[in-house]
Each structure stands twice: as C-alpha cells, then as structure tokens.
Amino acid sequence: MAEKKKSLADQAYEIIKNNIMNLTYPPGMPLTEALLTEELGMSRNPVRTALKMLQSEGLIVTDYYKSMTVKEITDKDINELYQLRELLEGSAFKLIFEGGKAEEYSYRIEEKVVHMCAVASDVYKWELADTQMHLEIVSIFNNDRITKFYESNLSELVRVGMYSLKNGMRIVPTNENLKKMVKYMRKNDYERAFAILKKDHFMQGKDSAMKEELKNE
C-alpha cells in the first residue's frame, strides 16, 4: 500500500516544529503568517492550521494583541526539566540494576549510542538520538503514564539540549563516556555507570543550558 501523502498543514507543522526545536526559530522569536507563508512557499490556510497545532502544544504563545512568538525558555524551565529528568531517569537507571537487567539494557542503550555516534556531525540529529537513548532508560518502568508524561516534555527537552550543545556540551566526549557507561553496565557496576549519566547528562547538560539563558537575559 502506498504511503499516504502528508497534507500541506502537516508538512508546515513538521517544518515549523523542527525549526523551533533546532533553534532556527529561537525562543522569543516573533512569528507571522506572512513570514511563514513566504518562507515555506505555502498559502496561509495550512500555515494557520500548523500554527494552531503548535499553539496547542505550547511551543508558540500569543500575547494580548494576538502576536505570536516562539515560547521562551527560562531558568525556571531548565531547572524543572532537569529535575524531572534526574528524578525519572535516576530511578529508572537504579531499577535496571536492582531488577538484574543491567546487561540486557546495556545492549539496548548501546544500540542508541551507536546511532548517536553515526549522526555526530549533525547537532540536531544527535540531540534527537540522545533523547531516544534517555527514553530507552525510562522504558524499564513499563508504565504508559510515565512514558506519555515524559514524551509530553520532549520538545522542551530537545530545545534545552540544543542550548547545552551550543554552550559547552561536546558530542564526541559525551559519546565516548556513554560507551564507558555501557561497559560499566555490563560489569553490573551501578555506581560508575550512574556517575557518568549524572555528570554528562544532568549536571553538565543543565549548567551549559543555563549559560545560554544567562546570555539571553
């Protein structure tokens, strides 16, 4: 069966959303239908539909005068998102070891890390691949509500991750450290494996993202 062709509205939605998430349209950037119709080469109707979809997701906000801007990311947002990640992923990572599944998950996570290495030359693709690695960790819960809750924040997590990469978080050393984390998982060494996850993805990621926010103040 032939793949169903995406509507113009869906195409506009994907392009605008990707541009928001990869910071082509940075937080606080004004957006207008006229600007986007010209940039995307589309009529206003699909662009308007796409913008409504993105407003419902919270990526685009409107003010009293109905002017549209890309949602800002504040230091409070960054703190809350990293607190969420550390709570969920920290508990999940510990559960992997407590449940005797460290070796199994080492291979599952390694598969994601291999992909991260393959796309290392493209910052945005790497960030998306990194997100999938983190989703693999929380999959240990086997809890649809936790997965949906986590996925509902992915757009913001990706944007914040892009901040981190712009401000000091380096891809190649991070990939190498994740390879070490996988090896420690195979040895069932929770302390050393979690230390890498915590340092590279919670502490350094948050600190680098905060530098971008301070720059924007």
UniProtKB/TrEMBL annotation:
PANTHER family, from UniProt? GLUCONATE OPERON TRANSCRIPTIONAL REPRESSOR (PTHR43537:SF24), TRANSCRIPTIONAL REGULATOR, GNTR FAMILY (PTHR43537)
Q: Does the keyword DNA-binding apply?
A: yes
Question: Which InterPro entries does the protein's record reference?
Answer: GntR_C, TF_FadR/GntR_C, Tscrpt_reg_HTH_GntR, WH-like_DNA-bd_sf, WH_DNA-bd_sf
- Gene3D superfamilies named among the record's database cross-references: GntR ligand-binding domain-like, Winged helix-like DNA-binding domain superfamily/Winged helix DNA-binding domain
All residue ranges annotated as the HTH gntR-type domain in the record: 6-73
Name of this chain's protein: DNA-binding transcriptional regulator CsiR
Q: Does the keyword Transcription regulation apply?
A: yes
Which GO MF terms does the UniProt record name? DNA binding; DNA-binding transcription factor activity
**Keyword terms, alphabetized:** DNA-binding, Transcription, Transcription regulation
Q: Which organism is it from?
A: Coprococcus comes
- Pfam family of this protein, just one? FCD
